[in-house]
Amino acid sequence: MILSPVDVLLLLFLFRFVDAGRVLTDIRERVRDLQLQDAKRRLASGRRRLQHVKEGRIRQQLDHFNRQYTNTLLQRFFINDAFWENPDGPVFLFIGGEGPISEFDVLTGHHVDMAEEHGALLLALEHRFYGDSINPDGLRTENLIALSSQQALADLAEFHQFISQRLNLTLRNSWISFGGSYSGALSAWFRGKFPHLMFAAVASSAPIRAQLDFSAYCKAVGWSLMNEAVGGSQKCLTGVQDAFAALEAALLGGNSSQVSADFSCCQTPQHPEDQIELIQSVADIVMATVQYNEEGAFLSIREVCDVMTDTTRQPYPRLVRLGQIYRSTTGGRCVNVSHEAAVRDLMDTSAPPRRSERQWIYQTCTEFGFYQTCEDTTCPFSRRLTLWVQSEICATLFGISQHSLQGRVAFTNTYYGGDDPPTHRVLYVNGGVDPWRELSVIRDRTEGGEPAQIVFIEDTAHCADMRTRVTDRRSLENARNEIKTRVSGWLETAKRRL
Hints:
The protein is an alpha/beta fold. The protein has 17 helices and twelve strands. The chain has helices spanning 5-11, 23-43, 48-51, 110-118, 149-167, 182-193, 215-225, 234-252, 256-262, 272-291, 301-308, 315-328, 339-346, 357-368, 387-398, 405-416, 474-497; strands at 53-61, 72-80, 91-95, 121-125, 175-180, 200-204, 211-213, 369-371, 426-431, 446-447, 450-451, 453-457. Helix 1 crosses helix 10 (272-291), helix 7 packs across helix 10 and helix 14 crosses helix 16 (405-416). The longest helix has 24 residues, at 474-497. It starts with a helix and ends with a helix. 51% of the residues are buried.
């Protein structure tokens, strides 16, 4: 999943990586936990795979673009050769994103199922500055300058050379990359920038276009709340809009103490910045529900809409009830709405490296934006979630001027192609419920006489195609079959070219 800086900042107080946490991050981690639990169940009857997984480190240049700078970092990777038809079998590379990788990234998932079918070697490379791939002083602002997607692609190129030499790989070993969300974008970009290394790429839920003001995210959330195929309705969207209007009116009307009691806040949100923290945390319950619909980590859209259209309650009590349901899944802890405490926590550069919020905020400030604003009438939440409010964290944490952000985002789009990305042998997979589809490739295009390859799944959410479950919708099964057909076709093409 991808978090905007405000998601991380405003939700840090609620469910932190170490102590408490954030709503979106918390639900993302629940999704990840469910995936790990499912992986362990699958592996219980097949421990042969575990025996083939090896963990390693590659020493990377800290700055690939300045060879006079000799500092390095150790980057973690995993190898699974259980299915590999050595020496000529293909190589499937799973690219890590804004969080740690694990051995399960080469043990489970749709890419692993396809690797078994095609006799592929499985690899996973962790993103620099995340997980265990960070130096002890890596969170210091002056050191974060080496954190960027461009450096990450250079890491992948070096890793390609490292593994090829270590395992005696040749041109007969065709490489295909896989990734989801930010790492899905990296998968597409790696194929685009290094086509001589990566034969093809699958990019699931990949936001390949940077966007400073990502107001389309909240608009897409609204559309998904109306999507009858997943349990939404116009009444549901109206119910959410009315509830947030009532919440905002209560805060502006001087009823902060009552609101604090209703939503079990640790502090009374008297100050405007604390009120915004509360509004954002409640909004993120709805956002995360849409983004991870039917993943089993929290309520589904259908269940949230049942709450928000309950005729026995008025709009505001419905929202209070939604917050109670969420808190019941977290041990009933109070909601910390202190903006000052959240900023103080993010400025702590001694935090354990497995935390990722400070690093990801830095990348959104320097490369991507992704601010999920709510300043137009299509947003179902509060108009107080403005671009200026959400982007001020860049100056606070890193001294990055808000006025410079548009230029940084523009450079990213110029560098990678923005709305016109490389599409040759890149398969873009997106779900119709996922708000991040707005920044991906979801329509047919043509490049060099070859149509863009897309798989669009009308009724699924973020990265839903990347793992298999018995309870999956038929549309997901069909999409995975289509992905498998595309991958098989690429490998046949590669064989014919040798």
